[in-house]
Amino acid sequence: MAELVFLKLGGSLITNKRRDAVARPQVIRRLGDEIHRALEKRPDLRLLIGHGSGSFGHVVAHRYHVQEGCTDWAGYAETSAAATRLNRIVTDALLEAGVPVISIQPSASARCRGGELVSLALHPIRHALEHELVPLTYGDVALDELWGSTIASTEMIFAYLARRLLPQRIILAGDVEGVYAADPALHPQARLLPRISALDETDLSGALGGSNGTDVTGGMRTKVRLMIDLVRELPELQVRVISGLQHGLVERVLAEPQFSVGTLLTA
């Protein structure tokens, strides 16, 4: 039986989020090689990749307040263009590594309401997976019925697609090793949490930091809470937060479903 996995390459991983529109091409190429090797090891693996916009889309979106309904629609266009530029870099690197990605632009079909994604075209993604292609999506602008405009984050897109495509796993690869008991930016000795259960009612607000750069989608705190809500709804789903900076780790986690690293979010 084929296994469907969603993999996110975080904006903090593939860009320098402290510098405007600066990609990390060496990191992206390495990740492409790791993904390619994992697909060679696992012919049964079906993969959907998403990536954050990092210092490309987030910086421009923050400037124009696109996430909460912009008043300058030129800013909406500029944010879309910035996100697309990074997607082109990632697409070309993955294709060069031998990963058969097909870029799918969320804003072409996304419809939001009050910051929630309510509609997104599924047919291109289903069709790509059926033909053993790797759909590649990304955080993007979106039209919002109530606000005018918003941002559809990669996690929002994953959550929408997961409810319809039912992946077995979601892997979130960023620039930290997982989720910590306290914000590691403020507490360098903070303990890594190996597992978080959706049934655990513990307040994680102190454990979940924000972002290490401009992030209009809320940083780690928002991402983890959205994924916890998702595993409550889909109890068979496993979500793992890992570091993509550790060489070979993305490859191993893709190729070995039982490999334990980072933080596992489960029902």
Per the principal axes of the C-alpha atoms, what is the gross shape? globular
* Gyration radius from CA atoms, angstroms: 17 Å
Amount of beta strand: 15-25%
Q: Count of DSSP E strands?
A: 14
Name of the CATH class:
Alpha Beta
Provide mean pLDDT, rounded: 91
Secondary structure class reads alpha/beta
What's the name of the CATH homologous superfamily? Acetylglutamate kinase-like
CATH topology descriptor: Carbamate kinase
Major β-sheet profile: 8 strands, mixed
Give a summary of the structure in a few sentences:
With 267 residues, the protein is an alpha/beta fold. It is built from 8 helices and 14 strands.
Plain-language structure description:
The chain has 8 helices and 14 strands. It is of the alpha/beta class and 267 residues long. It has a single domain, classed as Acetylglutamate kinase-like (Carbamate kinase, 3-Layer(aba) Sandwich). The strands form 3 sheets. An 8-stranded mixed β-sheet has the order 3-6-2-1-9-13-14-12, sandwiched between helices. A 4-stranded mixed β-sheet has the order 5-4-7-8. Strand 7 (140-144) and strand 8 form a beta hairpin. The longest helix has 24 residues, at 73-96. The protein is globular. The two termini are 23 Å apart. The mean pLDDT is 91.
Note the main attributes of this structure.
267 residues, alpha/beta, Carbamate kinase, eight-stranded mixed beta sheet, four-stranded mixed beta sheet, 8 helices, 14 strands, 37% helix, globular
